[in-house]
Amino acid sequence: MRGVAEVVPQDDLARKIERSIAAKTPLTVKLGCDPSRPDLHIGHSVVLRKLRQFQDLGHQAVLIVGDFTGMIGDPSGRSKTRPPLTLEETRHNGQTYFEQATRILSTKKIQMLYNSEWLAKMSFADVIQLGAKYTVARMLERDDFERRYRAGEPISIHELLYPLAQAMDSVAVRADVELGGTDQKFNLLVGRDIQREYGADAQVAVTMPILPGTDGVEKMSKSLDNYIGISEPPQQIYGKTLSIPDTVIYQYFLLATDASAAELEAVKRDLENPAHNPRDSKRRLARMLVAMYHGTDAAQAAEKEFDRIFVRKEMPDELPEFQLTAEGPVGILRILTETKLASSNSEARRLIDQGGVMVDGSRVTEPTAEIKLGSGIVVKVGKRKFARVRKA
Is residue 246 helix, strand or coil? Predict the structure, then answer.
């Protein structure tokens, strides 16, 4: 129950566990994967780590990659329809998701399935029969649908089918438990209803809190650039962790780390002590997160590197090096995009406008600036990105 937002219903979970122990049969614990976002961050890790706990207790984890439902687009928490994906895109993203997820999950007690395996086989008559098992009134109880309906914003019929399609996943794998964020509660409960309609025992819905991003306000998201990726280099995980507001330190320890109950109590006491510097707690959190995904040695190295660059204001030991073909000075926009320090010219301009671009220690203020490469320059973007650029 650690870090869990809600279990619906909790008595059923106890009953299922008792039955599992008596029959020596593991529970089937299901988690749906959103194939539109294959890059996992520690916000995703919250529910994945709960699934790992079930695995460690001997239960069967089932990852359902929504390759078919990805073509619908999950409307959860959306104020407008999410653009659908092609089947090829969802398959590629699903494989990427699985490769990253197994940095948290055990590969022994896990199944990965694509829901096109059963949903693509349904006839139109099957869909009509499924639709007859749920009412529009019940569907409009969902927060995002109700909000959009009241605001006069369009809701497409295919969006109403999404919760029913996800529910059919639970029917197909005979899920005992389904995990999800709090924003998935409605879908998980629809799964319970539809399982009963098909004569199966209803699953237990276990929801997990939504981890705030590094801004401490919005949901962690790559599109908002407030995320800490589980596959990011140790130095980036460490540095981003130190940038979180003090108000969310305890949440991160609780939801994203393996800190014991005693350690959590110690963190809480420290943060309540006016004499304690919250930065010390953040450094401890950063070490824990790096160690989880890269090992203890990498965590120690990341901390030393961070201190050298940002505490003692020194340069990193190793810089990625790039060579550009040029006869004369090179435009700063080209330098930033070709070194991948910016993803596009527009992002490069924004970084320059915000004062975040330095060349050999001098701030670049104009996006039209031409830079002499000479024997090599050091470009710095923001606090953590560096590159050495030479003439080819």
Answer: helix
Total residues found in the chain within this entry: 392
CB atoms within 10 A of CB 326: 17
Q: Is the peptide bond before 75 cis (omega within 30 degrees of 0)?
A: no
Would you say the pTM of this structure is higher than 0.85? no
pLDDT tens per residue across span 247-270? 999 999 999 999 999 999 999 999
| Model pLDDT for residues 294-337, shown as the tens digit of each residue | 999 999 999 998 888 766 666 676 778 898 988 888 999 999 99
3-state DSSP assignment of residue 370: strand
- Per the CB < 8 A criterion, the answer to whether 379 and 311 are in contact is no
DSSP string, 131-181: HTTS-HHHHTTSHHHHHHHHTT----HHHHHHHHHHHHHHHHHT-SEEEEE
> Which stretches of the chain are assigned E, i.e. beta strand?
6-8, 28-33, 60-65, 110-114, 177-181, 204-208, 321-324, 330-331, 357-359, 362-363, 370-371, 377-381, 385-391
Q: Cα separation of 335 and 313, whole Å?
A: 23
Domains in the chain (CATH in brackets) are: 6-208 (3.40.50.620), 234-311 (1.10.240.10), 321-391 (3.10.290.10)
Greater confidence (391 vs 197) lies with: 197
Question: Computed from CA positions of residues 301, 302, 306, 307, in that sequence, does the dihedral angle turn out positive or negative?
Answer: negative
Rg (CA), the chain: 24
Distance (Å, rounded) from C-alpha 136 to C-alpha 189? Answer: 15
Cross-sheet strand order for the sheet of 6-8:
6-8, 204-208, 177-181, 28-33, 60-65, 110-114
pLDDT score of 115 more than 50: yes
Total Cβ atoms within 10 A of residue 158: 14
Name every residue whose Cβ is closer than 8 Å to that of residue 248 and which is 6 or more positions away in sequence. 212, 216
Give the span between the Cα atoms of 218 and 162, in whole angstroms: 25
DSSP 3-state assignment of 16? helix
Q: What is the DSSP string of 47-91?
A: HHHHHHHHHHTTPEEEEEE-TTGGGT---TT-SSPPPP--HHHHH
